[in-house]
Amino acid sequence: MPESGGLLKQELFSLTIPQVGGGEDIFATIRWSQKLLYHNGQFSVEVPFSFPQFVNPLPKVFMKKEKIQLTVNSGMGKEVILQGTSHPLKEKGRQGEKLSFLHEAAVETWSTKDFTFTYTVYSSDLSGGVLVQPSTLRDYEDRDMFCLFLLPGNNENRKVFRKAVVYIVDTSGSMQGKPLESVKNALSTALSDLIQGDFFNIIAFNDELHIFSSCMEQVNDKTIENAIEWMNLNFVAQGGTDIMRPLSEAMTLLSNSHDALPQIYLVTDGSVDDERNICHTVKTQLINRGSKSPRISTFGLGSYCNHYFLRMLASIGKGHYAAALDTGSIEGRMVQWFQKASSTIVSNISIDGIKHIQDFEVDSEYIPDISAKYPLCVSGRYHGKLPETLIAKGQLADMSEISIELRVQHLKDIPLDKVLAKQQMDLLTAKAWLLESKELERKVVKLSIQNSLPSEYTRMVLLQTSLDKIDPAQQAKNKPAKQSSPEERSAMPLRGMTLGFGDVGATRENLTTGFGEIKATERFEVFEKAMAGCCSRVADCICCMCFIKACSKMNDQCAIVIAQTCAALACLGCFECCSELCCGGAN
C-alpha cells in the first residue's frame, strides 16, 4: 500500500472502532442496497459474510452465535423456487410471493464464506408487473411512484433480433496499457458471439478515425478473424479524444442496416467540451429515423469521463449504460454489457392503458428494449389511479407484435422509494446536467437527503458523537491531553463518494490515473503519537491486520519473548518521560 493510503476501489469501505475493552460487546447496524444479479433465468444475491481468522479470540475457543434472517418478496405473484444457498436455511413461512428463511447456529469460528442465495421465478414466457407506491409528505414530489418490470422468461425458442453493430472504441493516449488491452479482449469476445446474418464494423478514434471497413461487414469466420487482426494493429493508445465524429460516422454506416436492428456501442475513458451538443444532435437524428433508429449503448472507463453524459446518451438511444471504475473489472463488465445490449427479443416498447392517467412519466428518456439475458426495469411517476392491469406492447424479431399483461400491485411491505432511489437519482442528475436545470438539481438534493444517499449536489459528512451517559470516573481516566475545538470534533467530509461530471483537462492531457486514484486517508485521529524516533518508522511499516494475524499464529514462547521486549521498551519510554519531567531533560 502506498504511504498516502486511501481506497483502491469504490466498492471497498472500512470502519474503525477505537477503544474497545476486553470482553465488551460490539453492536453494529449496517444498511445498504444492492442490485440482484440475474443470469440464465436465475436471481441471486451475494452478501459479505466472511471474517478473517484474527477476529477469533485466542487461545481459548469461544462459542459464537451465527444468525441469518432472509425475506424474499418477488412482487410477481408467481411461484418462487429456491435454487441454492451458501448457508443452511430453514423455510419459516410462505405467503403468496413472500417467503421467509432463517439460519441460526452456534459456531466455533465466524463464517469464512460470503452468504449467497439463488432463486427463480417460474415463467415459461415473457411476464412482468407494475409495483405502485403512493407519494409521502417527505417525497421530493407529490406524484405517486411506479416500477414496471419485464422478465424474459425461460422460452429458449424466442428469437433474438439480427444485428447491425458498430463498435466505437476510444484509443487516445490515456487508454494505454491494461485498459485498452481489456477492451480489446472484451470486444474479441463480443465479435465471437455474433452469429450468421449479423453485420458489424469497428471504429477506433482519437484525434483521427480508423475504420475497419468502408461498409458493414457480414459475419463469418474470415471477417471476424480479419477484424481481430485489425484491432491488434490499430488499437494503439495515442492522441486526443473526439466523440462526435465517430458517432456521426457510425450513424452514416448504419443508414443501411440490411433489415437488422442497428446498434452502436461507444467505449471511452475521456470527457469532451461539446457533450451537451452531442446529446441534442444525436436525439434529433434518432427522432428523424423513427423506429429503425440505432440503439446507442455506452461504457465509461475510470473517473475522468462524464458518466452522466454517457448515461444520458444511452437513455436517448434506448440503449444500456455501464461502467468500470477499476482496471480489474473492465473485461468482465464489458462482456456482460455486450451480452445485455445485443440479445434483444422485443423492441419499441410502449405502455397501453395510460391515456387517462395524468402526468404519466418514465424516469428514462425512452423505455429500452427487452433483452433475453436480463430483466427490464423502469420507474416513473404519475397522477391519478392506475387500472388493475396495464398492457406492454412491442415488436418481435419476426416483425409481429406482442402484448404482455401487467398486473398492478399496490405495495405495503416493499419500500419502493428506497429500492429505486439510486436509479432515480442518477437519471435525474443526468437530466439536470443536460438541461442545466436548477429545478431538477433541487429534486436531486431532496431525494439525496430523503434517502441518505450522496449526490453531486450534496455532501456526506462523518459526525463524531459521544454517548449521553458516560461514567465520570471513566471519562476522567480517558480524558485526552489535548482538547479539540468544536470545529475539529463536529464533522468530517467524506470525499470520493460520487463520480463528478468528468475532467476535460485530464482528458486533454491524456492522464491515465483515472482508475482507483489513491486519495488521502480520511479518519478520526485516535492517537497523535505512539513512539518516537526509529520506533515510529518501524511501526509505520507494519500493517495492523497483518501484525494481528502474525501474532495469532505465534507459539507461547515467542509471545512471551515479544511481551517482555515490549515491556522493556515501555520501561525505557517511561524512564525517558520521567527524566524530562523531573530533570528537565538534563543528563
TrEMBL record:
Annotated ranges, domain VWFA: 164-338
SUPFAM superfamilies in the cross-refs: vWA-like
Pfam families hit by this protein: VWA_3 (PF13768)
Protein name according to UniProt: VWFA domain-containing protein
Organism: Urochloa decumbens
